[in-house]
C-alpha cells in the first residue's frame, strides 16, 4: 500500500503484494486493509484510492464500513477516491455511496460524470 499526505488527510492507494490480487477487495485483502488502516483512521483523515480495484465482496464492503465508523468515532473522515464504476455500482446497491465516496472534485473518481446525481 502506497501512502501520501494531502491536506491533513492520508491518501492511501490500495495495492496487494501479489499482482493477481491487486484488483480485488475480497476477504484476505480486507483483513489486511483493516489491520493496516484501522489505527490510522483513528489518528487522521484518510482517503483510500481504489484505482484498479475491480471486484469487492461482502468482506470488502464490511471493511470499508468498519473503517468509516472507526474514523467517525474518532472525529475523523474516511472516504474513497478514484473509485472504478463497477465498485461505485456495488456501493450504490448497498447504500454506502453517499457515505464513502469523496465529493472533492480534485480527488473524486476518474468516472466523475458517472457519480453525478440530479437533485430532483
Regarding CATH, which class? Alpha Beta
Shape: globular
On the 0-100 scale, what is the average pLDDT? 77
Strand content: 15-25%
The N- to C-terminal Cα distance equals 39 Å
Helical amount: 40-55%
| Secondary-structure element series | EEEHEEHEHHH
Describe the structure.
With 120 residues, the protein is of the alpha/beta class. It has one domain (2-113): STAS domain (Transcription Regulator spoIIAA, 2-Layer Sandwich), CATH 3.30.750.24. 42% of the residues lie in helices and 19% in strands. The strands form 2 sheets. It has a 4-stranded mixed β-sheet with strand order 1-2-4-6. The chain has a two-stranded parallel sheet with strand order 3-5. Helix 1 packs parallel to helix 2 (58-73). The chain is globular, with a radius of gyration of 13 Å. 28% of the residues are buried.
Task: Summarize the model shown.
The chain has 120 residues and is of the alpha/beta class. The protein has helices at 27-43, 58-73, 85-93, 97-100, 112-115; strands at residues 2-6, 9-13, 24-25, 45-49, 55-56, 78-81. It has a single domain (2-113), classed as STAS domain (Transcription Regulator spoIIAA).
List keywords for this structure.
alpha/beta; 120 residues; Transcription Regulator spoIIAA; 42% helix; two-stranded parallel ribbon; globular; disordered C terminus
Give the topology.
Blueprint: E1 2-6, E2 9-13, E3 24-25, H1 27-43, E4 45-49, E5 55-56, H2 58-73, E6 78-81, H3 85-93, H4 97-100, H5 112-115
Parallel strand pairs: 2-4, 3-5, 4-6
Antiparallel strand pairs: 1-2
Helix pairs in contact: 1-2
Amino acid at each position: 500500500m502506497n501512502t501520501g499526505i494531502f491536506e491533513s488527510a492520508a491518501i492511501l492507494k490500495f495495492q496487494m503484494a501479489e499482482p493477481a490480487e491487486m484488483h480485488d477487495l475480497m476477504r484476505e485483502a480486507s483483513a489486511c486493509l483493516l489491520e493496516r488502516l484501522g489505527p490510522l483512521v483513528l489518528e487522521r483523515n484518510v482517503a483510500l484510492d481504489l484505482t484498479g480495484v475491480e471486484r469487492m465482496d461482502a468482506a470488502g464492503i464490511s471493511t470499508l464500513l468498519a473503517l468509516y465508523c472507526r474514523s467517525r468515532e474518532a472525529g475523523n473522515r474516511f472516504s474513497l477516491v478514484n473509485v472504478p464504476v463497477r465498485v461505485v455500482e456495488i456501493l450504490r446497491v448497498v447504500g454506502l455511496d453517499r457515505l464513502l465516496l469523496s465529493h472533492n472534485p480534485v480527488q473524486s473518481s476518474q468516472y466523475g460524470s458517472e457519480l453525478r446525481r440530479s437533485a430532483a
